[in-house]
Amino acid sequence: SASEKGGWSSFMAKEVSEQPDAVANTLRGRIADGHVVVPELSAFGDDVLAGIRRIVIIACGTAAYAGQVAKYAIEKWAQVPVDVELSHEFRYRDPVLSDDTLVVSISQSGETMDTLMAVKYAMSLGAKAISICNTQGATIPRESDAVIYTHAGPEVAVASTKAFVAQITALYLFALHLARVRGSLTEAEQAAQVAELQAIPAKIETVLQVEDEVRQLARWMSDTRAVLFLGRHVGFPIALEGALKLKELAYIHAEGFAAGELKHGPIALIEPGQPVFVVVPSPRGSAHLHPKVVSNIQEIRARGARVIAIAEVGDAAVLPFADTVIRIPLAAPLFEPLLAVVPLQIFAMELAIAKGLDVDQPRNLAKSVTVE
Ligand code: AGP
């Protein structure tokens, strides 16, 4: 009903706007004196966490993209190898696991059958299991050894938004806890990451101000037949997420690529007028990657692509080559996904609205997929 939506036109619009709170609530009570404390992980004991040799993240859809983002942070901070697997692929391919493997499942609903089956299977092979979940008391956290709840609040729209940023936040808390237990980051390094996390809610609030600009863009593009998304490093899973949002909400063919992969095939898709969103890494924080992505933009622009760049405030290098630049505030590289995803969510939502579609209940989809 209208009152449940609190004055918003849809649950999705409401949930997109709640993302600053979703992150703040996931952080609440889990930071003390500049470091992360996740009491939920005491189920294992620090010696067990220190002895983990490998992490396997299992999830589906948007939750799996949160896992792909977190892989970069976990490997950098905790120095444990991470594989990210789709639950339904993991379950049926005889994965090699041992008792020093930690399985981290990610599920908003906690009821996704594919993920539940994968967790049970991994545990039957001796792995330890942590659940990142948004729904208190759901099946997957009950089956797992430990749970870190994302406190994003109920997510009603089928398209996941606030749960996604909360999942990344929870996974970063997990990564920092692990890094502390393993001694892989100094106190100062931990404090710096914690400060970045704490600054995210206000920065998302700033990004939400792009709404009118992105709505205009979506209206201009409402008869677009295909959209490509490019990203690199943590921007790669964000490109995948931007494409998924557009498929599920606006029923437009969309594909995300790692920008470095362009020349290995996808650049053949570029023809005059082809819209391409590019998630541009920070010129300061990712000085080695930024010029590579700018040169990708030049390459596709030379072939007629219509480039929409999501770039940090002050990044002037993209200006000569992008048709549209959507600005996000400065953040350390690993934290950019929490900002860059927001305009992509809004774009997909606004394009669906421009096409007269139901953004909360896209066709053929269910909020929680409880069948295999
Ligand atoms: C995202 O917008 C989706 N509707 C979908 O990919 C979802 O993230 C996936 O089905 C996983 O759901 P879960 O988090 O409840 O397990």
UniProtKB/TrEMBL annotation:
GO terms for cellular component: cytosol. GO terms for molecular function: carbohydrate derivative binding; glutamine-fructose-6-phosphate transaminase (isomerizing) activity. The active site is at K367 (for fru-6p isomerization activity). Its main location: cytoplasm. Its EC number is 2.6.1.16. It catalyses: D-fructose 6-phosphate + L-glutamine = D-glucosamine 6-phosphate + L-glutamate. Catalyzes the first step in hexosamine metabolism, converting fructose-6P into glucosamine-6P using glutamine as a nitrogen source. This is Glutamine--fructose-6-phosphate aminotransferase [isomerizing]. It comes from Cryobacterium levicorallinum. The gene is glmS.
